Amino acid sequence: MPKSKVRKKTDSPARPVSRTPVKVKAAPSSTIYVSVMLGLMIIGLLWLIVYYLAAEQIQWMNDLGAYNFLIGFGFMVAGLIMTMKWR
Questions:
Q1: Range of the domain at 64
Q2: Does the model's pTM come out above 0.70?
Q3: Angle between helices 67-82 and 31-54 (to 10 degrees)
Q4: Domain tally, the chain
Q5: Which residue ranges traverse the bilayer (predicted)?
């Protein structure tokens, strides 16, 4: 009669069930979200470029003075903040 094989027993006891919450992977961002994010950053950059190159010819932009930096960098920062939620 053939001899039966001996099963190896594990040295460690069975793992306890973990009760910590598991993060669910989020779906990728929509193309509209990415478009708005990139659009804000590009608008901010273009605002600053136009201010540097043509502020004397555009009266209302010249009247804003240093607020042009706030507007331009504000657009860019808003776009950069949106990158934190981008998937």
A1: 43-85
A2: no
A3: 160
A4: 1
A5: 32-54, 66-84
Q: Is residue 27 part of a domain?
A: no
Query: Alpha helix (H) ranges present in 28-66?
Result: 31-54, 59-64
DSSP state letter for 1: -
Which DSSP letter does residue 20 get? S
Contacts of 73 (CB under 8 A, 6+ apart): 44, 48
Q: How far apart are CA 42 and CA 27, in angstroms?
A: 25
Q: Answer whether residue 65 is part of any domain.
A: yes
Handedness of CA 58, 60, 64, 69 (dihedral sign): negative
pLDDT tens digits for the chain (87 residues)? Answer: 777 777 776 666 566 667 788 777 778 889 999 999 999 999 999 999 999 999 899 999 999 999 999 999 999 999 999 999 888
